[in-house]
Amino acid sequence: MPRLLCAPDKFKGTASAPALASAIAGAAVESGWTADLLPMSDGGEGLIDVAGGPNRTTLVTGPLGVPVEAAWRLDEVPSGKACATTAVIEMSEAAGLVIAGGREHNDAVAATTRGVGELIAVAVEKVPSASSSAAAARPRPMAARGPSLGCAARNPSTPPSCLLPWRP
Fold first, then answer.
1. 168: helix, coil or strand?
2. Is the pTM of the predicted complex or chain greater than 0.85?
3. Which pLDDT value is given to residue 102?
4. Is 167 helix (H, G, I), strand (E, B) or coil?
5. Can you give the residue ranges of every domain in the chain?
6. DSSP 8-class letter at 146
7. What is the distance of C-alpha 127 from the center of its chain?
8. What is the predicted pLDDT for the residue at 82?
9. What Cα–Cα distance (Å) separates residue 4 from each residue in 22, 25, 99, 157, 160?
C-alpha cells in the first residue's frame, strides 16, 4: 500500500499546517494510501500550532505600546525522575505585523519588540534548569531586544547590547 508523509507548512491567512496535513492525509486515505502527519513550520508564524497549539497566554507590551494577550505553549512531559519542560513562543504573538496595524499602518520606527522580551522572560521562568546541581548556572536568553531582559542601546548608531546576568 502506498504511504504518504504529509509535512506541509501553513498557507498564510488560509490554513494552519496541522489543518493542511490533516486534509492532505484525508485525501490520501480516500485514495487507498496510508498517511503520516508531520506538520511543519519555518519557525515563524504558525510555530505554536505545529507544537500542539497554545495552552497559555500572557499580557505583554504590544508593538504600539498597548498591552496584548500573547499566546504561547508550555509542555511538561514526565521523563524518568525529572520532567522535560519545553516552552514555545512566537514573536508575532507579541510584535507581529498584524498587531502593529498591517503593512499599511505599521510604523517601524515607533514600534517596539519589548513584549517579545517579556514573553521570553515569562517562558524562561517556567523552564527549570537542565541540571539539578546547585553549581549549575543557566544563561538568560539574549534573543530579545528590550529593557525587560536587560538590553539597552549604547547610542542610536549602534545595535543594542544584552549583558544579562547568569543565575543558578
1. coil
2. no
3. 86
4. strand
5. 1-40, 42-152
6. S
7. 14
8. 65
9. 12, 8, 37, 52, 47
**How far are the Cα atoms of 32, 47, 52, 75 from residue 36, in angstroms, in the given order?**
13, 19, 16, 23
* pLDDT of 15 higher than 60: yes
* Rounded-to-integer distance, Cα 91 and Cα 116, Å: 6
Provide the mean pLDDT of the chain.
Answer: 79
* Residue spans of beta strands (DSSP E) within 89-157: 138-139, 151-153
Distance CA 112, CA 120 (A): 15
Q: What are phi and psi of 57, to 5 degrees?
A: -135, 150
- Euclidean distance between CA atoms 79 and 6, whole angstroms: 29
Number of helical H runs and strand E runs in the chain: 5, 9
User: Percent helix, strand, coil in the chain (nearest 5)?
Assistant: 25, 25, 45
Question: Would strands 67-79 and 82-88 be described as parallel, antiparallel, or unpaired?
Answer: antiparallel
Put residue 16 in one of left, alpha, beta given phi > 0 → left and psi -120 to 50 → alpha.
beta
Name the region of 123 (left: φ>0; alpha: ψ -120 to 50; beta: rest): alpha
For residue 125, the number of C-alpha atoms closer than 13 Å in the C-beta half-sphere is 8
